[in-house]
Amino acid sequence: MPNESSKQRKPRAKKEEHRSAYASLLERRITLEVGGKRQKLTAKEALQFKTYQDALDGKIAAVRKVLKWIDEREAAKNKLTVRPINLPIIEGENQNGVPVDDALLLLGIAVEDEAASKGDRPYLRIQSWAVQAALHRFDVTLQRGDLAEFRRHTDHPEQVFWPKETGNG
What we know:
It is extended, with a radius of gyration of 24 Å. By secondary structure, it is an alpha/beta fold. It starts with 20 loop residues before the first helix and ends with a strand. The strands form three sheets. The protein has a three-stranded mixed sheet with strand order 3-4-6. A two-stranded antiparallel ribbon has the order 1-2. The longest helix is centred in the middle third of the chain and has 20 residues. It has two domains: 55 residues, no CATH class; 80 residues, no CATH class.
């Protein structure tokens, strides 16, 4: 009788195999002519584009769908609030007593600027990829003067696609 260790185990399914056929279809890339130019779009993007076109052509169902998208986006934007950078938070500790600086460095979110560091405390700059991801995720609009402050605390700010400044902030 074979022992437990000699039994063949069924290989684990890859994560990709757990995706639905619907999700796989929406991620498939197709080539379409858009505005006289050939572009590669995902099936989801192509369906959205077609829905926009139908809405512009006056098809009621498409108009309702686009208006629903606009309402959903506005509701999501209204939930987000942009907090100003509060540097004392960066200098603090998390709930477990771990210095936030150490976590930012360990995760590669920040880098030490040795030239700007004073004393035993390092001066950190946020990595440009992390700033870009935050700007993209939260779709922020910077108040006048905020852009200079964000740039000052960003490592390689020239690599970031910054939003336009507005207001008098």
